[in-house]
Amino acid sequence: MTPPTDWQARESALLADWAMHAAETAGRVHPEPPHPFRSPYQRDRDRIVHSAAFRRLAHKTQVFTGYQGDYHRSRLTHTLEVTSIARTLARALALNEDLVETLALGHDIGHPPLGHAGEDTLNELLENDGGFSHNAQALRIMELLERRYPQFPGLNLSREVLDAQATRKRDGSAPPPLLETQVVDAADSIAYDTHDADDAVELGLVTLDELLSLPLVAEAAGRAEERYGPLQGGERRRAVLHELVDWQVAGLIANTRSGLERLGIDSVAAVREACRGDAQGPRRIVVHEAHVAAGKAELESFLFKRVYRSERVMKVRVAVQRKMRELFDWYCGHPDELPQSFRSRAVDHGVRRSVADYIAGMTDRFLEQDYARRL
Fold this sequence. Notes:
It is a single chain. This protein is mainly α. It is built from 18 helices and no strands. It has helices at about 5-15, 40-50, 50-55, 75-90, 95-105, 115-125, 135-145, 160-170, 180-200, 210, 215-230, 235-265, 270-275, 290-310, 310-335, 340-350, 350-360, 365-375. The radius of gyration is 22 Å and the shape is globular.
């Protein structure tokens, strides 16, 4: 069979009716002529990959700030793992892989340095200025802060990409989420639950046996043993964590297909209608079975108590938060030391928000260097 020779024909041949076809995009805030051979979502993906915010993810902490070693994840490796899982889900559900890849690659570009400690600190510092969240900051980067083109601020991404990010920051004005958006959110959850557990064992914060006391991990271990037989040490850990991802992905695909059939979903409009939200937020079609969802909640509670709020992690967290606060206060007192673009935006957005924009864009190591230079 001769393969399609252009993106419109390819999408028409491969995508389901419930997928978001690029030919049906609502366009961009700043209109641009179409590209001769790339779809709108391919262009969006490339704009994110070539952005400064994306490059900086390589040197931003995921969770374990200040720990030596190259094993545990950075924001960039986390992003790539999310993208890999999300593309698998998208292909199995006949969704738009280009859009899914774009959303996955861009979902964390708003994270500041120093992991969750950095985000919490900026949120505290901006308590009276609208607060700070990485999801809102990602949208701010997409629409304003990146300057890659002379004719408009931001990256001028497709409206579907901006709507997806607005959904993540719980913007009530955002339309109900596309299946592509839901797939990326599910992939994000699968990735961080699994790799945070992996990194925590590697760093000695918890043991594999402790993880195995949780029903979700225990079931994954049973499945791994059925597949490979008895394993020990590192081989066992890797097999269990691999199975934890693979099993969740397979179950999510099956449960989502069942939901699409049960709800009679046959178009993007039907997806939007089925996912209209209420006070609790938009409903979802891409969801796990109830027992898996309950197991994930238990795993996340365990990680929060034993890892994210462990004495070792909190000791480092307090130290790096102090440095961020002091650097923030220094720049608020010396706004002329900000780069020109941030000084210019301070006129319309305020000094504190512009200082937060600047610090949020730093990598972990640049923040350390700038702190040493300024203070």
